[in-house]
Amino acid sequence: MGSKYPTVRKLVAEEKRIEAKLSYTSTCKNTGETKIFDYSKKSYAKSHHEILKVWVWAAYKRRQAAGNVSQVSWYDRINLFFDFLTEHGVSELRGLDSGVFIRFVAWLKKHPTQSYSTAASSYRVLRPLFVQMLRHPDIKAKFDLPKNAFPKSTSLAAVDLGYDKQEMKQILKAVVEVLREKKGAFETEYVPSFLGQPAPLENVAELNPFTGVRSLWASHEHRVWFFENVLKCKPITLFRKLKEFPGGQCFRSSFNQYPRSEYQSIDDFYEFIGARIKYFPKYQGEPSPIRYLTPWKKRDYVIWYWENVMGSQYYTHEECRLKFREFYVAMREHWGGTQSFYRSMNAWRWLSAHDLAPYYLMLIIRTGLNPSTVQRLTIDCLEIDPLNEDRKFINWKKYRSHKSDRTIPERSSRNDTWAVSLIERVIKITSSIRTDQNELWISNENPWRIARPYGSEYFRSGVNRIFEKRPVFSTNTGEKLNVLAKSIRPTLAWEEYLRTEDLRYLQTLLGHARVSTTAEYLRRVEDPLFRSRRAIHQEAMFIGLTESSEQAEKHLRVSDSLKPKDNKNIIFYEGILNHCKDPLIGVGKGQVKGELCKADIEICQSCQNLVITPYDLKKYFCYLNFHKYLLDVGEISEKEFIKATTHKINFWETYVLPKYPAGLVEEIKLEAILNPIDVWDPKTFEVQRS
Q1: Which of 198, 211, 583, 605 registers the highest number of CB atoms within 10 A of its CB?
Q2: CA distance 49 to 301
């Protein structure tokens, strides 16, 4: 009986075959796709065959621990190692030792095309395979690879700060505009206008039954128009007189060239329209009622033909040329080609990655998921919430970290840009081209003209296409930004952190296994708001702390060199809710040394010039009481009140008030109620309002 498991002999034989051919086939553990990795095509395959075969063996042994994307990275980055070996004259296995790998690390650090963090990334990719290589039977020597070869490389990597609020508004506006266009093109069901009706040939020149050619003079209404507007309603019959009028000769000859059953001659025509009696004009002073020499210039006729003859279907250029020749010719002559007409009718047959790009971007914005996670969604990723049948959630998988989770349940019909609705819309759009594909993102506008899932390069290209016509400009420099899908997630993470200041919540939201990964999203150390929320500047001064109080002593963090011995001899400049040591030296954005600082309290929190006095505590309580009063009397809305007070409450309650003795704070709070500062006194406000 045969076994479903290969024998050791077969496994060894397969490994020998792979070493000989320098090629192996791998099935991706994430997508199930099969890919061939052929190292025999490398330029150094012959010169370094002995070492390369061990590398291929190591890659083959580790193939099931990595997806195809990682293995492509192995295939590309191993060039660095063999470039190093070639440069140092190492081509045989016996030349490999600890010193070679130590020198390789030093070589990488000095590589002209590799930054420190990039070189570290390359080494991290290659190191697991180097470890695997050391287990090959042909490597007899035992040695270790360098550990911590690139210290602090992660922290030195470039930080993706994402986009600020204004830039994100531009991005969102562009995506929404393109979504609306695509909705009209791909989600609107076509309703026929002329199906089963006669061809709309009004205002079209009639066909000459003898010549098969259309002419204005074959149309009765054009003759009537000529009689009224050119002959001025005079029934002229003589040829020599008609020649005096522009077009008169054609008018006279038309009765012979294009005879009609109603009349045979010009006299019969005048008799038929009643020109010799009391005539009432129909078209006097107007253009000719015959506007089209051919029906193909009339859009209604083109639509009628498409509905009744072509069945409202999309046909390619070649199919039109063979099956509907006159339609094909007319489209080229009068309408700029068949594609222009199909676009105007929202008819489509080919669906590209560019068409689905706005749905992809909006899904990232709505969910905050990693772009690679969104790219790998499937059509069965939606599931019904077991607690509420009206809601659905998205099941997602993150392959590299082997994580899977679900989004917050939501109603699919509540808003067509919500995550669940977006996926349902994409499923509906792709249903007409889908065969047996389970992937969410598929396209049939490819060289094979069949529906297939597409890769990350097509997603990137689709995003670029959106912002080519709708550019996004930097708030700081005004330069055009290169919008990347991967930068949206850090943007959303930053906004959520500012809203909640809860790193654990953010970790859960982003689906990170380690909080250190989440912290990488918050490396905007130069952002003034971030600095103010993290802590007060160490050189800030707090005047009036009772040093004998245990609570005050606990929070006093000002060194003796910075603490004034005699406050009366020091001048402090008053701000809105605080004082300042030197307003000519500010930290606000755009602040120029020597000019008066114009920063608000949110910036002052992180400034070395910050000074807090007991009088500032009173100002804070007066400010808060006054805005509560305005809210109570209806002068400001709840939203305005929150905007005016939230950040200030957080700053004072977290960083300032705990430093002062509780008794002193209560006394000042009571003083603010009994004797408020004039500018924030409700009584003064009432007098001014009346």
Answers
A1: 605
A2: 70
